[in-house]
Design goal:
The complex is a heterodimer of chains A (258) and B (317). With 258 residues, chain A is of the alpha/beta class. Chain A has a single domain, classed as Glutaconate Coenzyme A-transferase (3-Layer(aba) Sandwich). Helices cover 24% and strands 21% of the residues of chain A. In chain A, the strands form 3 sheets. Chain A has a 10-stranded mixed β-sheet, sandwiched between helices. A two-stranded antiparallel ribbon of chain A has the order 6-7. In chain A, strands 8-9 form a two-stranded antiparallel ribbon. In chain A, helix 2 links the parallel strand 1 and strand 2. In chain A, helix 1 packs across helix 2 and helix 2 crosses helix 7. Chain A starts with 10 loop residues before the first helix and ends in an 8-residue tail after the last helix. Chain B has 317 residues and is α/β, with parallel strands linked by helices. Chain B has a single domain, classed as Glutaconate Coenzyme A-transferase, CATH 3.40.1080. Chain B is built from 13 helices and 12 strands. The longest helix of chain B has 14 residues. Classes of the chains: A alpha/beta (258), B alpha/beta (317). The interface between A and B is large, with 53 and 62 residues.
Chain lengths: 258, 317
């Protein structure tokens, strides 16, 4: 790759490129709307022509048309060139049956164990903000391996979420399995600063790689809890001209990549 | 609101299940739904929303409907702001991510004027499915360990009697009435849906009564030429209303896409002052027009044609 001069990109573009790279050809990915849908489509157009994208509206094998991104994963734009359309309940049941390799979502608030909150900011009985809720998020994160793509901000990376909408490793250690969630779990959290995973024992969030020009201190400063740092922490390759070109072709109106 | 199995069966058995015509007007259909009833809403988010039926219910001054839907968008805002509903059971409630978190949903739920009861998407689906199956509950493996389940009363965590595994039992949901919009049906209510069916087949079979709105009414002969395309059987249906563009400004698969410009201006207006802006919107678009056709005129021919062009383009290569 000839990336001597680094092209410029926005935080959302960085998120889409970095999270898309994690998906591998041949996988079955259950993608949420926004950056996940875009990143999965990017992966499909670049390195994963055999990637099967599922949407909770009922689509199996989506092939979204450039410039026609859907406003949610429930509109006709999600179905173009798909292999099959199912009812929403039946597509969600594929997660429970074990057909899905990876779930891929955005997040409003996450904690050190990868629990996601998209329901309430503040006390659920008297919230400062009522958020839109789980949608399929709880089902996806309960039943498969998860990738989360989100902006890295201190107010979003909190020690304990106000409300566990979509379970990560709950209270760490074996608490997820003990609660009855025997499959799946948080795999990666991709942000505009770093790629994070989870420690095998404690199940706490750990920095695995830093994006170009980002320091570990900077990641810690933007996180509301103490992060573990992988001793072999890597530096990611910056987005290439090609990745950015395909991404911008997919979302020319910048519907998702603000 | 829980009804016993025998009550549920009795309501079905007492219904006229013969093959008979049941075409009515939007206004007549609205009279079939009473204040305070449980109402299942077909479609999901911006898709196949039975907007014309909701429009008619709001115009008729319905109150305190207890609604359920897989995912709720702006129709939920309209139901809350008009007072037609004070309780919505769903998995997700906002206009759509491209418009940010709904100020209207926030206003009504945070001030406790209305309730948003949150279940996981699969839980909503399995509740309708249990209702359709005539069983009291179904087991599932999500929601365990989360706070979503902690805030719900009608749910049980049990050990499976066969394997000992932890499972969640979700109860059947049998709405008194379901309102569903389809691309076409015959005068008897044999309904054909194109594209995504969401939870509508389970919803139709779970509900005690179904009111269909349809883009067009076709003959029973046409239905009989392709019975494999029929997704809701006539005997589940109580009334049929023909309403072209019956989901506008939302979409109807293969017929029209959402009216994005209208939805953008709606979203911009309600950001400032949710309650006042919603009153203004309801006055202008819901109470103002004399008919559904006049409502469509307000939405504008240019936008309707553009939405129709985009809608039909799903069948283009």
């Amino acid at each position: 790759m000839t990336t001597e001069t680094t092209p410029s990109y926005t935080a959302s573009e960085l998120l889409a490129v970095m999270s898309g790279r994690i998906l591998t050809d041949g996988q079955v990915v259950f993608a949420g709307v926004g950056i996940p849908l875009l990143a999965a489509t990017l992966a499909q157009r670049l390195h994963g022509p055999g990637l099967t994208i599922l949407f909770e509206g009922g689509t199996i094998g989506a092939f979204v048309k450039p410039g026609e991104l859907p406003p949610s994963t429930n509109e006709q734009r999600c179905t173009r060139r798909a292999n099959m359309l199912l009812g929403s309940t039946d597509v969600l049941l594929l997660l429970q049956r074990g057909y899905v390799d990876v779930g891929f979502m955005g997040g409003a608030q996450i904690d050190q164990y990868g629990n996601l909150n998209s329901s309430y900011i503040g006390d659920p009985d008297n919230p400062t903000t009522r958020l839109p809720g789980t949608g399929g998020g709880n089902d996806i994160s309960s039943l498969t391996q998860m990738i989360v793509a989100m902006k890295h901000e201190k107010r979003r990376f909190v020690e304990t979420v106000d409300f566990v909408t979509s379970p990560g490793f709950l209270r760490g250690r074996t608490s997820r399995r003990d609660s009855g969630l025997v499959a799946g779990g948080m795999h990666r959290v991709v942000t505009d600063l770093a790629i994070l995973g989870f420690d095998e024992e404690a199940r706490r969030m750990k920095v695995l790689a830093l994006h170009p020009g980002v320091t570990a201190d900077q990641v810690q400063e933007n996180t509301g809890f103490e992060l573990l740092i992988d001793p072999q922490v890597r530096v990611t390759e910056p987005p290439t001209e090609k990745e950015l070109a395909v991404l911008r072709h997919l979302d020319p109106d910048r519907l998702y990549i603000a | 609101m829980t009804q016993t199995y025998l009550e549920l069966r009795r309501k079905t058995e007492e219904r006229d299940r013969s093959l008979h015509e049941k075409v009515v007007s939007l206004e007549e259909a609205a009279k079939l739904i009473k204040d305070g009833e449980t109402l299942g809403i077909g479609g999901s988010t911006l898709s196949r929303t039975p907007m014309a039926m909701i429009w008619a219910l709001i115009r008729a001054g319905r109150k305190n409907l207890s609604c359920s839907r897989s995912i709720v968008s702006s129709e939920g805002e309209l139901l809350f702001a008009s007072g037609a509903s004070d309780h919505i059971l769903t998995s997700w409630f906002s206009q759509g991510i491209v418009w940010g978190v709904s100020k209207v949903m926030r206003h009504y739920t945070e001030s406790r004027k209305a309730r948003f009861e949150e279940w996981s998407h699969m839980a909503v689906g399995l509740r309708f499915r249990a209702g359709a199956m005539g069983v009291p509950f179904l087991p599932m493996r999500s929601m365990l360990g989360s706070d979503v389940i902690r805030r719900l009363e009608d749910v049980r965590e049990v050990d499976c009697p066969f394997t000992g595994e932890k499972v969640v039992l979700v109860p059947a949901l049998n709405p008194e009435v379901a309102i569903i919009h389809v691309q076409r049906c015959d005068p008897y209510g044999n309904a054909q849906m194109d594209g995504l069916s969401f939870m509508d087949i389970d919803l139709a079979m779970a509900a005690n009564r179904v009111i269909l709105t349809t883009e067009r009414i076709v003959t029973n002969e046409q239905i009989r030429r392709a019975p494999d395309q029929t997704k809701i059987p006539f005997f589940a249906v109580e009334a049929v209303v023909e309403v072209p563009f019956g989901c506008a400004p939302h979409e109807c698969y293969g017929v029209y896409e959402p009216l994005f410009k209208h939805l953008d201006s709606y979203a911009a207006a309600i950001k400032k002052d949710p309650e006042a802006a919603m009153k203004q919107y309801l006055d202008r678009y819901f109470h103002g027009p004399k008919s559904w056709t006049e409502y469509l005129e307000l939405l504008g021919l240019e936008e309707l044609l553009d939405a129709a062009r985009r809608g039909r383009s799903i069948y283009d290569d």
